[in-house]
Amino acid sequence: MGAAPVARDPGAQPERTRLAWRRTTLAFALVVVLAGRTLITEGDGGPAAVVGVAGAAVAWVGFLALAHRRMRALTGRRPAAAGGTVLAAAGVVLAVAALLALTLSAG
């Protein structure tokens, strides 16, 4: 009567997680580009805007390194927990948001 249990593919979850990290990295890159465009076009385009865009770009590179580290950890036989990497990535995102908000309010 009940459906037979479906065998779980142990490789599917790490693959989905890798794809999610890639999508997140691309979305973060788009946010940095659009925020930079906003700072340059709507702001005065002065030094504060340049510092804001440069800081966001450097932070994105740090986020990219964290994501790459996590994706490499998923290739092992038994993927390790992501706790520290996820918290660090969230910290980078919050730092960029704060930096861009301060830069926009200063300009």
From TrEMBL:
Name listed for the protein in its UniProt record: DUF202 domain-containing protein
InterPro entries linked to this entry: DUF202 (IPR003807)
Localization of this protein: Endomembrane system
Residue stretches making up the DUF202 domain: 9-73
Pfam entry (one): DUF202
Keyword Membrane: yes
Upper classification of the organism: Bacteria, Bacillati, Actinomycetota, Actinomycetes, Kitasatosporales
Signal peptide: none
Highest taxon listed in the record's lineage: Bacteria
Membrane topology: Multi-pass membrane protein
Keywords: Membrane, Transmembrane, Transmembrane helix
Record bears the keyword Transmembrane helix: yes
Bilayer-crossing regions: 20-40, 46-67, 79-104
A single cellular component GO annotation: endomembrane system
